Amino acid sequence: MQFTFFHLMPYRPLDMAERHKHRAGWVVLPNTLYDPKKGANEYDSYINQLVYAEKLGFDVIAVNEHHQTAYGIMPAPNLIAANLIARTSRAKIAIIGRALPLVNNPVNIAEEFAMLDNLSKGRIITGFVRGIGNEYHSTGINPYWSHERYQEAHDLIVQAWTKPGPTSYEGEHFNVRYVNIWPRPYQAPHPEIWIPSMGSSETVKWAAAPERKYPFLVTFSSRELVSRYLNVYREQARQYGYEALPRQLGWASPVYVADTDERARKEAKEGIETLFNDFLAVPFQMLLPPGYMSLPSMKNTMRMRKALGAQKRLTLEELADSGVVVVGSPQTVRDQLSKLRDETGAGKLITMLQFGTLSDELTKRNMEMFASEVMPHLKD
Amino acid sequence: MPGTETKHKVRDVSVRMMRGGSGPPLLFLHGANGLPVWLPVFDLLSKHFEVFVPEHPGFGTSDNPPWMRNIGDLAMYYLDFIEGLGEHSVHLVGQSLGGWTAAEVAVRNCTRLKSLTLLDPAGIRVKGQPSGDNFIWSPEEAVRNLYFNQAIPDQILGTQLTDEQADIALTNRFATAKFGWEPRWYNPSLERWLHRISVPTLIMWGKEDKLFPAAYAKHWGDKIPGSRVEIVPECGHVPAVEKPEITAKEIVRLYQGTR
């Protein structure tokens, strides 16, 4: 397997009592709750963890993009990537991903990735996402066109990377007379593109297409759903007439390892529960603005929500039992990960070893434990 | 007399439409919540007019043609629609998103309009007075914030939607986002051309509107030559629902002034 150490960079000093006086930790959470001195220390800690992950033998260190939220303080993940390039030499650096529909000129994304790829001499992996629903509120971009803008931005970026310039691009949302980027990407034809997703069938079909074969990463989903979505991708690949390779299949999950199951659950509890209930949780009209999902998918989602009734706080126990998070002794974690790998043929594991309010000290222990007790058993 | 439901087709677009009453034609353009039931205000109006209430393309079960991408397309569609009614001209009434559409129709071409009534219309921005954010409101807030008299939302919220009604509400929300999300609830060009409206115009506004503050009414009144502004007390965003008698009375008064 290929191992990725992924970071969200949550703002841990958040006053949770204050946070719950507001709709969410997104969009409308007053930024007076952000203390720059504490925030600066958070960046220090997190960048050190990413750099340390290379030393521990992770293949990839990864960041992503979020806006106007305590959930992740990386509105410009490329700035972190540039910093990581200077402090590492071996690991691939993944930005998974940039939210394509949220920009008004996707050529900028193509340019910045090309620069990073040159600066790192080809160590960059990219990821293309649509952003989380909340970000259509915080950027003002119309979610009704989210899918269309994503497709066009993707096509434009790949064109900028691969077609000798100048070319032009003519879309409904983006219309660019001169596509002619300097620098061009270091890797030929271009850096890898990963597709993190919550498993929408439209996305699976698109990512698996023979002209793309993009690695597909299922995020924040139960064991059962990860298995289902990855197998849908494999099935889709067969329909296209080829067999999906392990490198095309992956999943992302918070992981916590300690000596015993009991200790692991105790130490991970607060971090996991703050991640899901305090940082991530938002009302559905914020998370799923109109058009973010297709109308048929949205109709189903609304019916499921109606059946479920009111949402309660999620507990570590529930999340661990359903496999949304993997928490336990080295043996437990090894067993769960290899079982899922065998069921799905996945070759990529994207681990979140810091999550929610988990402290630097526990993060470091978790990273070391994972690297020494779990990784060697699952390496190819 | 409740209206009857029909289908109305113009070019390649078929929409649901309610119609009722007799007299000169009045075209009512609904707001973001979609095609309403046959409201008391329509009964009152149908004593004087033949009332047509179409469901906009993209809403409910009307067609959603892929070329309909913005409010300008919707306005041009309604110019086609009015020609397709077989009537020489109509009294045009629009609520909120429908009011915005009606104004966009009127700045383009008034020759087939007899009068124009805008009820708490979207369509312009007043700096320093942002609209309420109906896309972030919870489902309960979204109902409560539309009315001054809370007995109305109490009743609405007390009724469970059928699956079919929930699907229609969701479809309407999608269409509303398409037209109104960005720029939020206005067209930067519209205000520059309001002087072109050359038919008798009435602007009605609920004094307690939480979506578009009643302060907007004066801006509309100042821009549309010869228009009349009526602020309705103890009324929220939807005068047609909350104050049907006043709404109908003022529209009839406007019509009588045109004869």
3D architecture notes:
The complex is a heterodimer of chains A (380) and B (259). Chain A has 380 residues and is α/β, with parallel strands linked by helices. In chain A, helix 13 crosses helix 14 (360-378). An eight-stranded parallel beta barrel of chain A has the order 1-2-3-4-7-8-9-11, surrounded by eight helices. Chain A is globular, with a radius of gyration of 20 Å. The longest helix of chain A is centred in the N-terminal third of the chain and has 20 residues, at 36-55. Chain A contains 14 helices and eleven strands. The model of chain A has no long low-confidence stretch (mean pLDDT 96). Chain A has helices spanning 16-19, 36-55, 77-87, 107-119, 134-139, 146-162, 201-208, 223-240, 261-280, 284-287, 295-308, 316-322, 330-344, 360-378; strands at residues 2-6, 60-63, 92-99, 124-129, 167-170, 175-179, 192-197, 216-219, 249-257, 326-328, 348-352. Chain B has helices spanning 40-46, 71-84, 97-108, 139-144, 151-157, 163-180, 190-193, 216-223, 239-242, 244-258, and strands at 4-10, 13-20, 25-29, 50-54, 90-95, 113-119, 201-206, 228-232. In chain B, helix 1 runs parallel beside helix 10 (244-258) and helix 2 (71-84) crosses helix 3. Chain B is an alpha/beta fold. The radius of gyration of chain B is 17 Å and the shape is globular. The two termini of chain B are 26 Å apart. The longest helix of chain B is centred in the middle third of the chain and has 18 residues, at 163-180. The interface between A and B is medium-sized, with 24 and 20 residues.
